[in-house]
Amino acid sequence: MRFRTRTAPRTAAVLAALLGLLVPLLGLAAPAQAAPVGFRVQNGRLLEASGNDFVMRGVNHAHTWYPNRISSLSHIKAKGANSVRVVLASGDRWTRNSAADVANVVAQCKQNRLICVLEVHDTTGYGEQSGATTLSRAADYWTSVKTALAGQEKYVIVNIGNEPYGNSNYARWTADTKAAVQKLRSAGFNHTLMVDAPNWGQDWAFTMRDNAASVFAADPDRNTVFSVHMYGVFNTAAKVNDYLNRFVAAKLPIVVGEFGHNHSDGNPDEDAILAAAQRLRLGYLGWSWSGNSSDVQYLDMVTNFDPNGLTSWGRRLFNGTNGIVATSKEAAVFSAGAAGTNPPAVTLPHH
User: Fold this and answer.
1) Catalytic: which of 48, 119, 258, 330?
2) Do 240 and 211 contact (CB within 8 A), yes or no?
3) Largest CB tally within 10 Å, which of 124, 266, 320, 343?
């Protein structure tokens, strides 16, 4: 049966229809996002809340296994770093770091004028490593310690999970990473999020590289940074440059979240990694300050957490060409006016 249509539609209905056509055409479909409260991504670059470009020059510190070594943060700062990636545990594989402990880590990072990248290590090698947990579980952990992170968006970047997926079932990385990002956004996290590559972080199958654009688009805040770990897979300058250049060309934010000068799976080209990061103005975080197990003890930058005991790797990373001393710039949030006109001297933090 045909229904008679109105010959004179109400004015409101006409206006509504016109607006429905015009709004998308004018690019007004979504309400304007509120200005970011902290770090943000713009045109493939990581920016501070002030709009200053921020390039990480730092190291990894194994806090969860050495909680009594919190003074390492001041030592790392004294060597010239502007950032530190801190190992935490969700309790799924290693002893859980409490909200109070996380709050203390953040406070010590701020006291020592370091940007704090916090990561959950329990996801390492999921699908291949016994005991490893999912990105979804890591997201639940972050929500459980949210009180320690809320309001710290200018100082803290949340690296959802370390090396999620080994070399098994790694194609699931894309969907799982999108879901974890969205889970944190739904929980009210406004921080810049960092996501590690699968394949033990080295992305040799290019899952992250080839799906990064869709993962970035799945973040409603468009505030996700990608992290590749460079060990034996990245044993030539050609491999290093090709990988990083593709992200830069695509205007997708990338950092080298871990790398070393040697590894059991091959010999990374650390000179090429440092040179490419400097040429492209990309962040890097070397692995690691101290405390590695005996089989990879060569990755310690200092011996037995002694800041005066730089190893050959430590000397290369801190004092060598394109290293931290030569290229690190402190975050603007800590400069005069942002953190007081007389910033405190670097001191040993309280335990």
Assistant:
1) 258
2) no
3) 124
**Is 270 marked active-site?**
no
CA-to-CA distance for 66 and 72, rounded, in angstroms? Answer: 10
**202 burial level (CB within 10 Å; 0-12, 13-18, 19+):** buried
CA distances (Å), 215 to each of 194, 218, 235, in order? 11, 5, 27
Going residue by residue through the chain (351 aa), what tens digit of pLDDT does each one get? 322 333 333 444 444 444 444 444 444 444 344 557 899 999 999 999 999 999 999 999 999 999 999 999 999 999 999 999 999 999 999 999 999 999 999 999 999 999 999 999 999 999 999 999 999 999 999 999 999 999 999 999 999 999 999 999 999 999 999 999 999 999 999 999 999 999 999 999 999 999 999 999 999 999 999 999 999 999 999 999 999 999 999 999 999 999 999 998 889 999 999 999 999 999 999 999 999 999 999 999 999 999 999 999 999 999 999 999 999 999 999 985 544 333 334 333 333
pTM score: 0.87
Contact yes or no for 164/136 (Cβ under 8 A): no
- Amino acid identity of residue 228, one-letter, is V
258 is catalytic: yes
| CA distances (Å), origin 267, targets 30, 40, 230, 260, 263 | 48, 34, 10, 9, 6
In order, the DSSP letters of 321-333 are TT-HHHH----GG
The beta strand positions in the chain, using DSSP E, are 40-42, 45-47, 57-61, 83-88, 115-120, 156-159, 193-196, 224-230, 254-259, 284-286
138 near 154, Cβ under 8 Å? no
Q: 90 and 137 in contact (C-beta within 8 Å)?
A: yes
Q: Which residue among 153, 163, 270, 330 is the active-site one?
A: 163
Task: Tell me the C-alpha distance between 205 and 210, whole Å.
Answer: 9
